[in-house]
Sequence to fold (349 residues):
Amino acid sequence: MKQLEMLVIGFGGMGSYHARGLIKEAENVNVFGVYDIDSKKRSAAQSEGFNVYETLEEALADKKIEAVLIATPNDSHHDLAVTALKAGKHVMCEKPVMMSSDELESVLAVAEKENKTFMVHQNRRWDDDFLIIRELYQNKSIGDLFQLESRVHGANGIPGDWRHLKEQGGGMLLDWGVHLLDQMLFMVDSPVKSVAADLSFVLGDEVDDGFITYLTFENGVRALIEVGTSNFVKLPRWYAKGIEGTAIIEDWDLSGRLVKQTGEIDHHNLTPIQAGQGLTKTMAPPSEEATTTLPLPKITADFDEIYANFYDCIRNGATPIVKNTEVMTILKLIESIFEAHEKQTVLHF
Fold:
C-alpha cells in the first residue's frame, strides 16, 4: 500500500513529539514536512532534517501531502482544520479537538462534504494504567466495578504560556480533563445521568488550575475524576471498587495491587480494633482467610495504534478507534462540567 505522507502543523512540544516518535514509528506513515508560524521552530525542525515550509499555503498546496496533524494552541484548531480539509487533506487533530461542540459540528460538516477523514488524537486510550482498569471493568476480575476514581496530580501549576489564557483554550479541564473523561466514557458503555463539578482557581489564573467532577452513569457506575496542579502529595492514579475486591494503581509506573475477596466475611463475629479514642468493628480489616492480594494484570491494547488506524481509515475505509461521535460527547460533557460549576448545581440528563 502507498505510504501516507503527512504534514505536521505546529512544531512545539506535542507536534515535535508526533514528528520524532509517534508518526516516525508508525508503519506506512511518514512525516513529509513541517510548518510552524514561528521561524525559530521552523529552523529547529529543519536542523533535525525535516522538510520545512515557509507558509501554510505552500504546505497545503503540495500534492504529495495527503494528511496533516494539527498540534497548535486550542483556539486555532477550528480554522486550521477547515482550511486543511478544504485543501483536500485528511486531518488528525490534537486534543481538545475544538473550543466548543459547535466548532466541532462545523468541522465535521466540512469533512463530510470534502469526503475526508477527520480524527482526534486521544492517545491516552493506550495508557497501560487505563488498559488495566478497563480490563478489570470488562472481565469483572474483582466483580462488577461500581465506583471508579481517576486522578492526575502535579505541583508545578499550569505549564507554558497560552495554557493560562481562556481565549486560547487554557485550563486543566481542557488540557488533562479531556483525556480522563475520554478514558472513562470509552470504558463505561452507558450514558451519563448526572454531573457535579468544582473547578479550582487557587493559583490566580483566569482558567482552572484543576477540577473535581463526579459522574453517575445510567448503569449505576459512579466516577470521580480529579486533576490538580498544586498537589505536593499525590493520591493514587486509579482507585477502583468492585463488589468482590478493590484495585489501586499508584502512578504511571504501574505500582499497585488487587485485593480480592476469597471467602465469606463473618459479619457477626468481627473482632473490634482500637480506632483513635474508640473501638470499631465496621472498619476492622477482614480476616486473612477472607482476602488475597494479587499483582496487577499485564494488559496490551486489543485495538490498533492510532496512526495505524488512521492509515487504515484513509486507505481501506476502516472504522476509527476514536470516533467523532465519542469526541462530540466528550466536548458536550466538558461544557456541562463548566455549567455545573458555574451554577453550583448537579445537572441531570
